[in-house]
TrEMBL record:
Residues 196-232, 342-408 are annotated as: Disordered. GO terms for biological process: protein folding. Its main location: other. This is Calreticulin. Residues 196-210, 342-356, 398-408 have a biased composition (Basic and acidic residues). The keyword Isomerase does not apply. It comes from Equus caballus. PROSITE patterns: CALRETICULIN_1, CALRETICULIN_2, CALRETICULIN_REPEAT. The keyword Manganese does not apply. The gene is CALR4. PANTHER family: CALRETICULIN (PTHR11073:SF14), CALRETICULIN AND CALNEXIN (PTHR11073). SUPFAM superfamilies: Concanavalin A-like lectins/glucanases, P-domain of calnexin/calreticulin. An alpha-D-glucoside binds at Y85, K87, Y104, D111, D293. It is found in: Cell surface; Cytoplasmic vesicle, Secretory vesicle, Cortical granule; Endoplasmic reticulum lumen; Sarcoplasmic reticulum lumen.
Length: 408
């Protein structure tokens, strides 16, 4: 099953109605891309929201088949906390009621929360329980598109790839706690009492020199008991202490290799009677829905190129023809976009600074103008004021009225 997120996606994908405030997806290639049309994907568009979207296909099983889950995701918003993974559901899922507690088979993809907590989740269902992988697989946290691939083989081995490069591989039994361990410590074994695990010991032949002074303070030899000292009343007299000039520190014997060292005692192991191999680990019989069940603080992640197949080579080829073609051009465009945004911010900051400076100049200019006017007022102006009053009186007597108008 291969799905690219192109026009008509709303007919193939179903939005859950389990809660009324789910975030909305939109179809876009984002701010930077390789091809504006071909690189369109499903983008989260609202901050601090849960998302629940799924698409259905004919049910299939990976019994005796390799299962490959592959998709691409671009966190162009610079995600700080949120999921970027997909889930595989059984055919019993009610898509309109899909939510975080809905039963699923596989959860796979990047999960980021904070700078140091970023990893690839690989959670697999087995006998009604969800098991998280024991290995820590670091995901990519930059703004470029990355390709994530999970391979589960019928021989109970797995592989995780990022950008078509292996980042983890091994046995399902070893890296998940599906089954009891093959070996356990022998409950009847005990470490011998005389077992010597000391790598080094103090040299029993080393002796402290007779002239070694290890008292930091000594009684003052020049001190004398006062003549009026009464031992019955004052107690036994003790002279004052002074620093010992010959003090050499606390003596310790030298350290040598232990001739009787036997190494660290290792608890013997035996076969675990509770262990039983299971050849059906991670065999799912009615995989029928792929969903995006997410929480994101900062939206903007773009999902694309979903692929479910049993052919590892085909998956790698599809990855090279989708993500592989766009990655270099997209990176160049992203770097150009970031440079343009940086320049824009610098220009806006410069304009803001200039406006602030102009505002300060205007304020200081008004004050200076007012100061000049104040300083220009002299006794010689009294005559002009009197003339103005006389003219005003003359106009009043002749009943002349002048309409007031605003000057523009």
């Amino acid at each position: 099953m291969m799905q690219e997120s192109q026009d008509g996606w709303k007919k193939r994908w179903v939005e859950s109605k389990h809660r009324p405030d789910y975030g909305k997806f939109q179809l876009t290639a984002g701010k930077f891309y390789g091809d504006k049309e071909k690189d369109k994907g499903l983008q989260t568009s609202e901050d601090a929201k849960f998302y629940a979207l799924s698409t259905r296909f004919g049910p299939f099983s990976n019994e005796n088949e390799t299962l490959v889950v592959q998709f691409s995701v671009k966190h162009e918003q610079g995600i700080d906390c949120g999921g970027g993974y997909v889930k595989l559901f059984p055919d019993t899922l009610n898509q309109e009621d899909m939510h975080s507690e809905s039963e699923y088979y596989v959860m796979f993809g990047p999960d980021i929360c904070g700078f140091g907590n970023n990893k690839v989740q690989v959670i697999l269902r087995y006998q009604g329980k969800y098991h998280e992988n024991n290995k820590t697989i670091k995901c990519r946290i930059n703004k470029d598109t990355h390709l994530y691939t999970l391979i589960i083989r019928p021989n109970a081995t797995y592989e995780v790839k990022i950008d078509n490069q292996q980042v983890a591989a091994g046995d399902l039994e070893d890296d998940w706690d599906f089954l009891p361990p093959r070996k356990i410590k022998d409950p009847y074994a005990r470490k011998p009492r005389k077992w010597d695990e000391r790598l080094q010991i103090e040299d029993p032949e080393d002796k402290k020199p007779e002239d070694w002074e290890d008292f930091e303070y000594i009684p003052d030899p020049d001190a004398k008991k006062p003549d009026d000292w009464n031992e019955e009343m004052d107690g036994e007299w003790e002279g004052p202490l002074i620093p010992n000039l010959n003090y050499k520190g606390q003596w310790k014997p030298r350290i040598i290799d232990n001739p009787n060292y036997q190494g660290e005692w290792i608890h013997p192991e035996i076969d675990n009677p509770k262990y039983k191999p299971d050849l059906t680990i991670c065999h799912y019989y009615n995989i029928s829905v792929l969903g995006l069940d997410l929480w994101q603080v900062k939206s903007g992640s773009i999902f694309d190129n979903f692929l479910l197949t049993n052919d590892e080579e085909f998956a790698e080829e599809v990855g090279n023809k989708t993500w592989g073609i766009r990655k270099d051009v997209e990176t160049q465009w992203r770097e150009l976009y970031e440079e343009m945004e940086k320049r824009k911010q610098e220009e806006e900051a410069e304009k803001t600074k200039e406006k602030e400076e102009e505002r300060e100049d205007d304020i200081w200019g008004i004050e200076e103008e007012g100061s000049e006017e104040d300083s220009a007022e002299t006794p010689g102006n009294d005559r002009q004021m009197k003339e103005d009053e006389a003219e005003s009186g003359f106009l009043g007597k002749n009943e002349v009225r002048v309409d007031e108008k605003d000057e523009l």
